[in-house]
Amino acid sequence: MAGRGKGGKGLGKGGVKRHRKIYHGSAFVGITKPAIRRLARRGGVKRNSSLIYAETLGALQIFLQDVVRDSVTYTEYAQRKTVTGTDVVTALKRSGRKLYGFGA
């Protein structure tokens, strides 16, 4: 660690990131059955049918595609490259869902 002073490792000199999930193809592979079950529990569902997981994944995919498409549209219109929380809140508001606490 010569040449870095008393600061220790320094910035940007970290090691290898281990145990990172790698998604092949769709990002919706990462939404697992237990994650869908937890969402259902939060909504008050006591017991799930086995057919519900594929249906829920399809509905979630359509919903997220719409929100992301609108958010990116707002970002491009503002000539930015970073999607902000305000863009997402505005996209949700456009679809009829209000979200409080994230600006706009």
Automatic annotation (TrEMBL):
Keywords noted in UniProt: Chromosome, DNA-binding, Nucleosome core, Nucleus
Q: Where in the cell is it found?
A: Chromosome; Nucleus
Q: Which Gene3D superfamilies match?
A: Histone, subunit A (1.10.20.10)
Task: Look up keyword Transport and say if it applies.
Answer: no
* Chief location of this protein within or outside the cell: nucleus
Gene Ontology cellular component list: nucleosome; nucleus
Q: Which GO terms describe its molecular function?
A: DNA binding; protein heterodimerization activity; structural constituent of chromatin
What the protein does?
Core component of nucleosome. Nucleosomes wrap and compact DNA into chromatin, limiting DNA accessibility to the cellular machineries which require DNA as a template. Histones thereby play a central role in transcription regulation, DNA repair, DNA replication and chromosomal stability. DNA accessibility is regulated via a complex set of post-translational modifications of histones, also called histone code, and nucleosome remodeling.
PANTHER family per UniProt: HISTONE H4 (PTHR10484)
What family is reported? Belongs to the histone H4 family.
Its subunit composition reads: The nucleosome is a histone octamer containing two molecules each of H2A, H2B, H3 and H4 assembled in one H3-H4 heterotetramer and two H2A-H2B heterodimers. The octamer wraps approximately 147 bp of DNA.
What this protein is called in its record is Histone H4
* Protein source organism: Lentinula aciculospora
